[in-house]
């Protein structure tokens, strides 16, 4: 993509009133636009990062048998009343409205209910199970406060997956597979070392649920960790019993601030009993289906990545989620040099490299470098009269301070 | 994809209360699920078709310089008040709700206002123009009636594009380019011969706007067409003046029923004046930006394609939007034959063909064929003991009645 054609422009200042570091940087660099508190649009650069993250998650969900679908934002009141999650006293993040005939509707903040209701059409026998479905859905949540940028929004993208299983054993096998798949996701986006499978409060069916917590000062959670033992406990469930169960003492644990990037939850048969989702087992008995629910906050993950890797100059994207792999910056002024820079851009693209080409002519070298640092693309090539004379480019990784000269003929993959 | 693992199953009957032919077929085949009137979820097969259509549109929008982004569902009241489109008397499809502090919000049914407001951050000089942006957005519209299946939903996917230009001339050039790009889209999805660029009512700035109308009995519009002269006129603007302007007589026109699959609209400087989006021209003068707006109903297009090509046996997808190119149906019962069928599936996939593999063992041949016709995948291969003995498959196109035998070695691309 040619930077001269990109409608967004880097800004020196974040908008007044934006207090979150991740959103400040992302707005300044032109990845996102703030519509209102907790509500952000994703601009051409931002949508590229989002799609990269989604594709990583999609591949890992497909690999464990997930089938992608997309449910609806509009929600029927009757359904959520059956599980007692319609009342604002019970769920305090609903946005609600009504049809012209007065029928009340909600806007989807989660989707266990509609997916489970739908499965009544597709599940009748044990032969139909297990089923794993997931979606990338824009969730709408009427949050009281929204001050964490894209890490906690009123409108945000979540990957939510739901598993339907015959029994605890079939459920458990998949549940454990999701833990591994989630850790592969966090590894691929560069967060593995700082992300912990964390014991958190369970529900009617289990002592614990599992959260995936990533260490960051921008987080809203506090967890206790022991890196050697690979144990992490949300402070909400830290007590004598938990410590005993997990074989660790409080002294061995360190308190850290974290953001919840994923969570997985065993609903058991609670919700399927409420909604009447049953199957017939191989003896002819009618039995409620086991439900599991598994989320990764896609836009939150993008925010956490920014928070985790950014430095004083700007964003630093891991290559796997960067909007482009290469930022090719032209400082050429002579026609012949410009032609060569253009050729390099075309050949890089043709060789399959994603390139942002800073072909702008009315911008100083200093501004180009500063903006490049702000954008955070992993690899920067500078092409100028000087480098062309030696048939080289100046190459610098965003994570390093030193640049080196590389032969042009060697940059194509 | 293995059909044995697909959680959806074909049904013989459409749900009671679903009156639209497109939705009846799509629900029966497992492409979509009806959440409520005008609100449909897209299941694994359906999401594949949607993504195919989106990708065709994306390529054509990118080719004319479009930059993809994604705006928000949540909308600020103040903004829409500035253009007098907040009041329910003026716009009767709003869903509205409010934040916990009482601030009223709307849910996006269109996005001219927020995108134009945003552009105030990115447009200041004539050098910043033109800008073309587009999105695939889930629109929410509080329609009084919703009886056309996915052709008119309360929740649906639209590609909406917006152009910002210095003046009428710059605007016009892009506007005409969009007409061509849209016709390429309709050609690629198989609808070109039945789709007409149609004169429809304009606005404050132009005598006409242009709609893209596709002939179908499921449509809600009536237009007058003359195929030879390639003229189409929405009945709403058919009068003496229009006939004179277009050089056609009423006798030369035929009245047909159509669905509006796209529309393009010249807002001139009306909305940018209301919202204060100006640029400085090369003489230093402050001038309002020209706005154009261009929509294609993505889910509606999917519905129109179903309506247009389906026959009494089920859906018939054009290859460009089909969820899979090949439906490989195994009738094998012997282990060795099954192994060979599996090999064919793997080799087809490896050669880059998208294959739905009907590997189900407890389903009769007759049911498999009937369901295959319902699903509408363009090419069907049947593999059985008999065909394997001759090292062939039985091949039939969904659009043809005759089958033929093809050598297995020749099916890989």
What would you note in describing this structure?
- Two copies of one chain form a homodimer.
- Chain A has 413 residues and is of the alpha+beta class.
- Chain A has two domains: 21-309, Bira Bifunctional Protein, Domain 2 (BirA Bifunctional Protein, domain 2, 2-Layer Sandwich); 326-410, Rossmann fold.
- Chain A has eleven helices and 21 strands.
- Chain A has helices spanning 21-29, 44-63, 77-82, 112-119, 168-188, 240-246, 270-275, 298-309, 335-350, 365-375, 385-389, and strands at residues 32-36, 39-42, 67-68, 74-76, 95-98, 104-107, 131-140, 155-165, 195-201, 208-215, 221-226, 231-234, 254-268, 278-280, 286-288, 290-297, 326-330, 355-358, 379-383, 392-397, 404-407.
- In chain A, strands 3, 7, 8, 9, 10, 11, 12, 13 and 16 form a nine-stranded mixed beta sheet that branches. A five-stranded mixed beta sheet of chain A has the order 18-17-19-20-21, sandwiched between helices. A three-stranded antiparallel beta sheet of chain A has the order 4-6-5.
- In chain A, α2 (44-63) crosses α8.
- The longest helix of chain A is centred in the middle third of the chain and has 21 residues, at 168-188.
- The interface between A and B is large, with 50 and 49 residues.
